[in-house]
Design brief:
This protein is α/β, with parallel strands linked by helices. The chain is about 35% helix and about 20% strand. The strands form 3 sheets. It has a 7-stranded mixed sheet, with helices on one face. A 6-stranded parallel sheet has the order 3-2-1-4-5-6, with helices on both faces. It is globular and about 55 Å long. Bound molecules: NADP nicotinamide-adenine-dinucleotide phosphate (NAP).
Length: about 325
């Protein structure tokens, strides 16, 4: 295959970002068609690139001139779209979460295994971030000895949605740490506990902000994730791994240091889109390259999507019980090893 002909489902915020990316940046790809439940949104997103608009997801999935699909619809719609692609033997790149329930993720895992080859990649873009990749290479070199503790922070300047719940802070935020950390330290989660310090002044409505999740692993690591969605000052992602013989820390994004009026300062990133711009580009390029060369994706798998959903559920159970909760992951099938 010389060119990957792609269809995209869901032309909302990230859908439009990925349309731009697929049309302007990613090599070897031609975006053929898009669709959205809101047809006006699909038409507006397609127009600048002369892309066809399909009436609905079924029509897009069945189109003979579409080799693979990108799923950027609302989370509750992911499962049906991905299962539809798998049933047709078409690869699907699905934004996180893979499905809105762990049971839904498992149905995709089972369908993919039945299909007999990997077809699904989940949009956990942090795995394509240069800083995390550098950290992983250093950890795998063995130079620092074995990892013992990980300290993370996931901070947003503000969360304005009054209806944003404690559980959503897990499924929309901590889920990224859940995915990146088991990949980074190559371990399996066993238990989680979510605790709340004093509520931040800026948190509003039903928010319970900040939260601290502690995840323990099969090899005895202690992974601590601060999730603070109203920190006020930046979109700030921190990660430090403490090992037997040293530590490694996620680099901050580059920013020109300023010396002025007796102070030294550097700008901080304010949005997730800017912070992970390069990672999103690399992620979709790698997805296209893998399909064009090997016919199968090599990024985060449906199993990774399932692991994230099961672990997120355990975090939500702990929010409710106040206790440490078992994650209860089954053994990874050989298909995904
Ligand atoms: P959004 O702005 O609400 O866009 C989603 C669009 O999909 C909406 O226009 C929605 O239409 C449409 N849609 C829903 N069901 C559909 C279906 N069956 N067929 C076609 N279109 C359908 O949401 P978003 O912020 O772009 O987020 C989309 C997904 O990306 C979410 O799952 C989110 O978690 C994920 N995401 C991931 C990242 C990341 O860092 N990797 C960042 C942002 C978002 P209606 O509004 O009419 O339902």
């Amino acid at each position: 295959m010389k060119e990957l002909r792609v269809g995209l489902i869901g032309t909302g915020a990230i859908g439009r970002e990925h349309i731009k990316r697929l049309c302007e940046k990613v090599h070897g790809v031609r975006l053929v068609a898009v669709t959205d439940k809101f047809p006006e949104s699909a038409r507006a997103a397609a127009a600048p690139y002369g892309v066809r608009v399909e009436p609905d997801e079924q029509a897009l999935l069945s189109a003979a001139d579409i080799d693979a699909v990108v799923v950027t619809s609302s989370s509750a719609a992911h499962e049906a779209a991905v299962l539809g692609a798998v049933a047709r033997g078409k690869p699907a790149f699905c934004e996180k979460p893979l499905a809105d329930t762990a049971a839904g993720c498992l149905r995709i895992v089972e369908a993919e295994q039945k299909a007999g080859k990997r077809l699904v990649q989940v949009g956990f873009m942090r795995r394509y971030d240069k800083g995390y990749r550098e950290m992983k290479a250093i950890l795998e070199s063995g130079r620092l000895g074995a990892p013992l503790i990980v300290h993370c922070a996931h901070r947003l300047p503000a969360m304005d949605d009054e209806g944003f719940t404690a559980a959503m802070q897990v499924t929309d935020g901590i889920i990224h740490e859940i995915d990146i950390l088991h990949w980074l330290v190559d371990d399996v989660y066993t238990t989680v506990q979510v605790s709340y310090p004093r509520r931040a002044r800026a948190s509003r409505g039903v928010q319970a902000d900040p939260q601290v999740a502690v995840i323990r692993t099969a090899r005895g690591l202690y992974l601590e994730v601060e999730s603070f969605f109203n920190c006020g000052f930046a979109y700030d992602i921190q990660c430090e791994v403490v090992c037997d013989e040293g530590t490694v820390r996620l680099p901050d994004p580059p920013a020109a240091p300023v010396r002025h009026a007796g102070r030294r300062e550097a700008a901080l990133e304010m949005s997730w889109m800017g912070r992970f711009l390069d990672a999103y580009d690399t992620e979709l390029q790698d997805w296209a390259d893998a399909l064009l060369t090997d016919g199968v994706p090599r990024g985060p798998s449906a199993w990774d999507g399932y692991v994230a959903a099961v672990t997120a559920d355990a975090c939500i159970r702990s929010q409710q019980s106040g206790r440490e909760e078992p994650v209860g992951l089954p053994v990874q099938p050989a298909f995904y090893r």
